[in-house]
Write a structure and sequence with these properties.
about 200 residues; alpha+beta; 5 strands; binds iron/sulfur cluster
Length: about 200
């Protein structure tokens, strides 16, 4: 297994050798993918008639006193989780809702856990890369890294040029924001942010 094998299209191809066409659902190749949490939620709903009102959330990073996996109710404030996990630690620099590759930074702890929250990262300065990004040097590493065969660099260039609405031609809506392209980019370009912006413009 290698990242982003948790992405259902890549997982289906690795396990069954079936390729889900662009824009299609896994059911089109006869497959349904459910993660462990969803399977358990279905079990609890059917067997115990329990609605989905809680989540296992991974709380991690040097910026939190007691990193742990917690079962929390949907709607719980991040601030309350922080207090339960022994509080914020000196040097906290960034709070990320989600994993290190696909999560997004938040500036307010009074936001709730939702049904899609799987992790909250409390990162100190030495755990994040704060170097500014530079121009694309056209190395092509992002293209090699993209599991969907996209050209993230082109999307980024178009967005920077104010042409985000023209990025549909690069398959921007096939991007599932795994973050692999941004991770490998030597110019530290915020490709996932560019792509999110492009999706809004190209709608
Ligand atoms: S985030 Fe980057 S690597 Fe991942 S699917 Fe989108 S364009 Fe490809
Ligand atoms: S990896 Fe970064 S620098 Fe290289 S082509 Fe892609 S966007 Fe440009």
């Amino acid at each position: 297994m290698k990242y982003p094998q948790g992405s259902e299209k890549q997982l289906i191809q690795a396990v069954t050798s079936r390729k889900v066409p662009a824009g299609a659902l896994p059911a089109s190749v006869g497959v349904v993918v459910q993660n462990v949490g969803t399977a358990r939620a279905v079990h609890d709903a059917v067997v115990y008639r329990k609605p989905l009102y809680d989540k296992i959330v991974t709380v991690a990073g040097k910026g939190i006193g007691n990193p742990s996996n917690l079962r929390v109710k949907v709607g719980t404030r991040v601030r309350d989780i922080v207090n339960y996990a022994c509080g914020l630690q000196p040097g906290l620099s960034k709070v990320i809702m989600g994993g290190p590759m696909m999560g997004f930074a938040v500036s307010n702890l009074d936001i709730p856990v939702t049904k899609t929250t799987s992790a909250i990262l409390f990162l100190t300065a030495d755990e994040i890369d704060t170097r500014p990004h530079s121009q694309c040097i056209r190395c092509g590493w992002c293209i090699d890294a993209c599991p969907m065969g996209l050209e993230p660099k082109e999307i980024g260039v178009y967005v920077e040029a104010g042409k985000g609405e023209e990025t549909r031609q690069f398959g921007v809506f096939d991007c599932f924001e795994c973050g692999s392209c941004a991770f490998v980019c030597p110019a530290k370009r915020p490709l996932v942010q560019f792509i999110r912006l492009a999706k809004m413009k190209a709608k």
